[in-house]
Amino acid sequence: MQSKRSKKGGDPLHRVESICFSQSTRQFDQNQQQRKEKLKKKRKHQRKRALLRRGPSNYNRYGFVCRT
């Protein structure tokens, strides 16, 4: 792929395609990142709630309350 480009700058159509492709993959990566962040938050929240449900002693033991 690089040899073709170095010879004659690559044919324009191919270049456009590659740009579009890189943009779409970047968008996809961003979406994946956002999804991961959301999941992480959700999991943390669920863990906190589970600890709360179990009782104040356990909740305290994990250092959520102490941390302020």
From TrEMBL:
Protein name, per record: Uncharacterized protein
Biased amino acid composition, Polar residues: 20-29
Biased composition (Basic and acidic residues): 8-17
Biased composition annotated in UniProt, kind: Basic residues: 37-52
Renumbered residue ranges of the record's region Disordered: 1-68
